[in-house]
Specification:
The protein is an alpha+beta fold. About 50% of the residues lie in helices and about 15% in strands. It has a 3-stranded antiparallel beta sheet with strand order 3-2-7. A 3-stranded antiparallel beta sheet has the order 4-5-6, with no helix packed on it. Strands 1-10 form a two-stranded antiparallel sheet.
């Protein structure tokens, strides 16, 4: 039975290496790197996922951070009656029915010990997806891409340092050029040196501006984050910035958002309804509406902008 992963457990490089070796295509060297930046984004994106729904009516004994983290990371939560009351617990499962769904809940809790329950008889297995799997593959995919953007950004920032370079034929000439640069830096109105040492061809700056791609990297990073938000069902501007977006483009993005979110909502709501009926709870699931409110505000702002353009 799997356990709830801690933050440090996300760096499961050996297992991922085996998986990539089995499923990889050629070339196989272009792959994400598991590092602290990836772990940072995994925690951040998991926190974004936890904001999708609100579960009200839960008993005071429930730890909702534990509930949502377990559900999104492992894909399932067992709701069972224990010596401490009705609790949502990390669990595994066993058995199969005719449709290959599990029939038994298996719990190993450090306080309550080992428990087993029969699904839909004396326990509810609340699932996130039909496969009973979590959202960590989605989170890890986008965490790796965002971390790679940070790596590219760090490199381009390092390479954008404007460094003055002087070419000298020997040590004496280098010292002369150094003294000349010191005097120029000190604001001397006139500096006189040997004509060979002062040849303008011997002095140049790195072409930092030509090598700087930071703005492009930040734009790609924003697009990756918007794609992640679309994937999990949060309203966003997952379209290229243009002066005008037609209605079909906006509706297509909104439809994709709704489809992706609906599957998770249906599965969670099914488990909530079963728990209410089995244990007499008053759980109520709803989508958080803050993202919809934000989108409405953006649309109103766009309408005002269009009106001002027409007037002018």
């Amino acid at each position: 039975m799997s356990r709830l992963p801690m933050i440090g457990d996300f760096n499961s490089a050996p297992a991922e290496d085996l998986r990539r070796e089995f499923y990889s295509t050629r070339p196989q060297d272009v792959d994400g790197v598991y590092n602290r930046s990836v772990m940072y984004y995994q925690v951040r994106l998991l926190r974004v996922l936890s904001s999708l729904f609100e579960l009200s009516g839960a008993p005071d004994t429930w730890d909702m951070d534990y509930f949502w983290t377990t559900l999104y990371s492992q894909g399932r939560v067992a709701i069972v009656d224990t010596a401490m009351g009705i609790l949502p617990l990390e669990c595994g499962f066993s058995g199969q029915n005719v449709f290959r769904h599990p029939t038994r809940i298996v719990i190993a809790n450090p306080v309550l010990g080992n428990l087993e329950r029969t699904i839909d008889e004396d326990g509810v297995l609340l699932k996130l997806q039909y496969t009973y799997s979590g959202a960590m593959p989605i989170i890890t995919r986008y965490a790796v891409m965002l971390a790679m953007c940070d790596s590219s950004l760090a490199v381009t920032l390092m390479n954008s340092k404007v460094t003055f370079i002087g070419l000298a034929s020997d040590k004496q000439q280098a010292q002369t050029m150094q003294r000349m640069y010191d005097q120029i830096s000190q604001g001397k109105p006139a500096v006189f040196v040997n004509k060979d040492a002062g040849n303008p061809a011997n002095f140049f700056f790195n072409r930092a501006k030509e090598n700087f791609v930071g703005e492009e990297v930040l734009q790609v990073k924003r697009s990756i984050m918007n794609e992640f938000l679309t994937c999990i069902g949060i309203n966003n501007a997952n379209t290229d910035k243009r002066e005008r977006l037609n209605t079909d483009e906006v509706n297509t993005n909104n439809s994709e958002i709704g489809i992706n979110l609906q599957d998770w909502e249906d599965n969670i709501r099914e488990g909530v309804d079963k728990a209410n009926a089995m244990f007499g709870l008053s759980l109520s699931l709803r989508k958080r509406e803050w993202q919809q409110d934000q989108t409405d505000g953006e649309e109103e702002a766009d309408d005002e902008s269009d009106e001002s353009d027409t007037v002018s």
